[in-house]
């Protein structure tokens, strides 16, 4: 049980502000790129699940600079269907004002902290979705997978040799 003398710190998520995306501006240093299929999946995610993650911004003298959520912002600004589900507005949370290097570090932390998907865990999920009656076409569209990926994940079986291994070896890392 928390100590009664301590109070909960205020967090950016305590105050979600819906803004016109035209009030926001991209930062010049975002290292994250999202390609077509992933943007399509992000759109499906927002349309099916709603806005589950606000766009993280810092208010500067030059305006509201995006720290995290540039691709959500892009859909909220340009995509007719995404704009329609929230009246053309996007959810934002603000970090306290920081210098440029701190803003860059915040962007990197947000991008890198998302983790990765383990192969065996993904295989179990795909196999379970198929067992629940989802078609390959539905999995492709709603999860953003290609048929080859579904085929491969559908055939992976846990074996004693796989114990403790949930990712490809270094030989699978692109250079």
Structure description:
With 175 residues, this protein is an alpha/beta fold. It has two domains: 12-112, Conserved hypothetical protein from pyrococcus furiosus pfu- 392566-001, ParB domain; 119-170. Helices cover 41% and strands 13% of the residues. The protein has helices at residues 36-49, 70-78, 80-85, 100-112, 119-131, 136-143, 147-155; strands spanning 17-19, 24-25, 55-60, 63-68, 90-95. A five-stranded mixed β-sheet has the order 1-5-3-4-2. Strand 3 (55-60) and strand 4 form a beta hairpin. Helix 5 packs across helix 7. The chain is globular and about 55 Å long. Mean pLDDT is 84; it is low at 159-163.
Counted by DSSP, the helix tally is 7
Look up the CATH topology of the largest domain: Conserved hypothetical protein from pyrococcus furiosus pfu- 392566-001, ParB domain
Helix and strand composition category: alpha/beta
Q: Secondary-structure element order, as H and E?
A: EEHEEHHEHHHH
The total domain count is 2
The CATH class of the largest domain, by name, is Alpha Beta
In percent, how much strand structure appears in the residues?
5-15%
User: What is the percent of helical residues?
Assistant: 40-55%
Number of strands: 5
Overall pLDDT confidence: 84
Gyration radius, rounded: 20 Å
Please identify which CATH superfamily of the largest domain we are dealing with.
Conserved hypothetical protein from pyrococcus furiosus pfu- 392566-001, ParB domain
Gross geometry: globular
The main pleated sheet reads as:
5 strands, mixed
Q: Biggest sheet, strands in spatial order?
A: 1-5-3-4-2
**What's the CATH architecture name of the largest domain?**
Alpha-Beta Complex
Uncertain ranges? 159-163
């Amino acid at each position: 049980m928390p100590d009664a003398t301590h109070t909960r710190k205020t967090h950016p998520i305590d105050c979600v502000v819906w803004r016109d995306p035209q009030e926001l501006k991209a930062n010049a240093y975002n290292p994250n790129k999202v390609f077509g299929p992933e943007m399509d999946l992000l759109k499906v995610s927002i349309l099916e699940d709603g806005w589950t993650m606000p766009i993280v911004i810092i208010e500067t003298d030059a305006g509201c600079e995006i720290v995290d959520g540039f691709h959500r912002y892009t859909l909220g600004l340009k995509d007719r269907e995404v704009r329609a589900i929230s009246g053309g507005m996007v959810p934002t949370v603000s970090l306290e004002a920081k210098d440029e290097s701190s803003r860059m570090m915040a962007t990197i932390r947000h991008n890198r902290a998302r983790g990765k998907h383990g192969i065996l865990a993904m295989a179990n999920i795909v196999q379970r979705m198929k067992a629940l009656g989802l078609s390959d076409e539905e999995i492709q569209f709603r999860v953003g997978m290609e048929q080859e990926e579904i085929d491969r994940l559908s055939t992976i079986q846990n074996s004693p040799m796989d114990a403790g291994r949930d990712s490809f070896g270094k030989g699978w890392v692109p250079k």
